[in-house]
Protein: 4-hydroxy-tetrahydrodipicolinate reductase
Organism: Ornithinibacillus halophilus
Amino acid sequence: MTIKVIIAGPRGKMGSEAVKMVTSEQNLELVACVDRRSEGHAIREYPILTEKSIPVFESPEECLHTVDADVFIDLTVPEACFNHAVMAIRNNVRPVIGTSGLTNDQIAELRELAKGNEVGCIIAPNFALGAVLMMKFAQMAATYFPDIEIIEKHHDQKLDAPSGTAVKTAQLIKNTRKNKSQGHPDEVETMKGARGAVDEGIRIHSVRLPGLIAHQEVIFGGEGELLTIKHDSMNRQSFMTGVKFAVEKVMGIHSLVYGLENILD
Ligand SMILES: NC(=O)C1=CN([C@@H]2O[C@H](COP(=O)(O)OP(=O)(O)OC[C@H]3O[C@@H](n4cnc5c(N)ncnc54)[C@H](OP(=O)(O)O)[C@@H]3O)[C@@H](O)[C@H]2O)C=CC1
Ligand SMILES: O=C(O)C1=N[C@H](C(=O)O)C[C@H](O)C1
């Protein structure tokens, strides 16, 4: 069976990789793209779309009403992504969301909508298999080491901080970690932000520099020892196996799944 795919954000760093991946896989068919500034852009920047006569729509509504599709991959920004996902679910097209920065309320709303419409939806804070394992291993380690600092490092074009991966890592850790306030009780920040963001006592630090792609380390401190669990994405192809996996998996589910760790075999 061929899975018919729409991609939103085809000119982006991730979207352009996804276009290459979907158009090169036998069991996937790219049936359309959604690009808010399609006029000339997609055609000039992505000849593959013209070569293969793949339509590009500025309006997601028009795209979803015109094209017969199974899956809607979103690699844009959270504001656009949320609306795209709502429209897709209402049109019985399954969203696969890579875009980071959705709020917990937005995720809860999409969960309800997906459940109500019995439409599969996957939100993947990180599509890289190694990153999913890094999050799971961190969750395991948190049972034994409750003192934790997360350091995520990304390229300087990233819009959201902390990263979706760091938010998800903290959420997984909170499921197993004993509640604990870290550091000295009288600790004072003499420069605001020095100790990073705080999520139930877990510290999260976001680094943004040119030269970086996507990296995270989770550091656990114990009496006389440190454990570091680290993952590095060196390029955006590292995410594509996970995108393909999610597109295939979403065909067989009828509700929302947040995190690939929930559906890894
Ligand atoms: N889950 C995962 O494994 C990964 C997730 N990501 C996430 O994917 C998202 C995209 O990342 P990346 O490709 O690096 O970002 P880019 O900025 O390279 O691409 C984003 C794309 O979205 C488009 N866009 C921006 N605003 C809107 C809008 N309001 N409506 C429609 N389209 C819009 C941009 O078009 P324009 O030029 O018109 O602005 C651009 O083509 C981010 O949220 C990032 O965090 C990234 C890597 C891995
Ligand atoms: O913007 C990125 O690049 C990435 N975003 C995702 C995130 O916010 O965690 C996934 C990966 O880290 C790359």
About this structure: The two ends are 21 Å apart (CA to CA). The pocket of LZUJQKHR (ligand 2) is lined by residues 100, 125-126, 154, 158, 163-165, 214 (CB under 6 Å). The longest helix spans residues 104-117. The domain at 3-123+237-262 is CATH 3.40.50.720 (Rossmann fold).
